[in-house]
């Protein structure tokens, strides 16, 4: 059991609102659960507020990588700082 703060309560309330928006909660349920979330002092109490609700699904967004020409790829050199030493000479 760990004490929670306002940030954890606020995050839980936002999740409750999203479940309300998706039809998982009605007005009364939302009000009761927000009241319970605001009164929660530990992570265990906060988890009980949403224990019977579905686990949020995270969507993975794939971002295509930029393609480079073979000539551009072969001419790449690592950047060198004026403060860096050449470790081959140590």
Structure in words:
- With 90 residues, this protein is mostly helical.
- It has a domain of 44 residues.
- It contains four helices and no strands.
- Helix 1 runs antiparallel to helix 2.
Radius of gyration: 25 Å
Q: Ends: how far apart?
A: 53 Å
Helix content: 40-55%
Largest sheet: none
Shape descriptor: elongated
Number of helices: 4
User: What structural class should be given to the helix and strand makeup?
Assistant: mainly alpha
Can you summarize this structure?
With 90 residues, this protein is mostly helical. The chain has a domain at 6-49. 46% of the residues lie in helices and 0% in strands.
Q: What attributes does this structure have?
A:
90 residues, 0% strand, mainly alpha, elongated
Give the SSE map:
Blueprint: H1 6-21, H2 27-39, H3 43-49, H4 70-74
């Amino acid at each position: 059991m760990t004490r929670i703060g306002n940030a954890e309560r606020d995050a839980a309330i936002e999740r409750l609102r999203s479940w309300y928006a998706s039809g998982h909660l009605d007005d009364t349920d939302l009000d009761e659960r927000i009241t319970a979330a605001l009164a929660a002092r530990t992570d265990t109490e906060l988890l009980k507020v949403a224990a019977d609700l579905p686990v949020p699904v995270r969507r993975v967004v794939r971002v295509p990588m930029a393609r480079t020409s073979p000539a551009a790829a072969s001419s790449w050199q690592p950047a060198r700082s004026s403060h860096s030493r050449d470790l081959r000479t140590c």
